[in-house]
Structures are given as C-alpha cells and as structure tokens.
Amino acid sequence: MKLIASLTSPYARKVRIVLQEKRIECALVVDAPMNADTRVREFNPLGKVPVLVLDDGSTLFDSRVIVDYLDHVSPVSRLIPGELRQAVAVKRWEALADGICDAGVLVFLERKRPVEQQSADWIARQLDKVDAGLLALSNDLGERPWCNGEAYSLADIAVGCSLLWLAFRLPEIDWRNRHANLAKLVDKLMLRPAFADTVPQV
Q: Per the confidence metrics, is the pTM higher than 0.90?
C-alpha cells in the first residue's frame, strides 16, 4: 500500500496523520499535482492528491474516502465512532474543516495568477466562507476539550489540518487571536507526534 501525496496538502496531511495514529504501515510517494512532471493523473483522473494505492493496485480518493477506509481496516485507535449519530457528527466536523480548506485553496491559487487577472470579488467571496467556517468551528467547539466531546477523533484531525494550513498559506487570517479556543485545540494537537511529524514542507 502506498500514499501519493503533496507535503503541503492539508488533505494529504489528514490521511498521513490517520495512518500514523492507527499505526498502519504505508509507503509515501511525494508528488505535487501542479508540477510539470506529476504522475498523479495516472492514479486519480481528477489529478488530485491524496491517492491511496492498495496492494491490489486499485486506488482510493479523495481524503474523506481514504480515512473512512483506514479507520475500518484497522481496529487500532478508532477515529470515527461506531454509533451512527456520533459518526455523522464527526464527519460533519470533517466536512466543515475541508470546506474551509477548499475556499482557502481557491484564494491561494487565485493569488498566484497575474495581478491583472485576479478577481477581488472572487477572493472576497472565498474569504467570507473561511471566516464563516471558522466562526462555526469556534462556536461548535465551545469549551469542550475535543471537537466531538471528550474523545480525540477524526474531527480534531480534520480541524487541526485545516487551521494549520491556513496558518501556513494564509497567515493574514488571524484565527488564533480571533478564536482562542481553536488556538488552544491546535496547540494540544501539535503535542501529538502525528501532527509534529507532518508539518508542511515547501
């Protein structure tokens, strides 16, 4: 089994953290889809990472599908609760965190275009989504120790990857000072080896 991933992708980082938390051995193949020599489309027709290549050669994508699969193939450190309502709650956290990243990535890519081709309205619309998503994360977390209550789960992994990607790529979005509870959560997550070992590398 091997994971095709970019070292700066928040979605790939989520999968890498899940692999480590669940103690699943998996080779890492670094490939950035934006590079001219990328081979990602050989494994995912959408040209996106992460892609999990199974031992039989079949592939899984995107990150939400991959982490679901990984959580079911190993009983170690279950990250998605077995009870339906709790599982749906965790997946909702993941969807919100990924949605914030989706909007942030669109801003990041738009800003890479020549200035005269950039759309200020488009950037503003995406940043509004990020701000609304951050407020929702903060309100939903409240004073709880973990996103889904008393236990560490995929929800925390997804939220942590989203927030840390924003700090890495869009540092002007000052979520730390605006949402102290999110900052506290991220600081706690960074004490975990799986988070410390997957810090984005340019």
A: yes
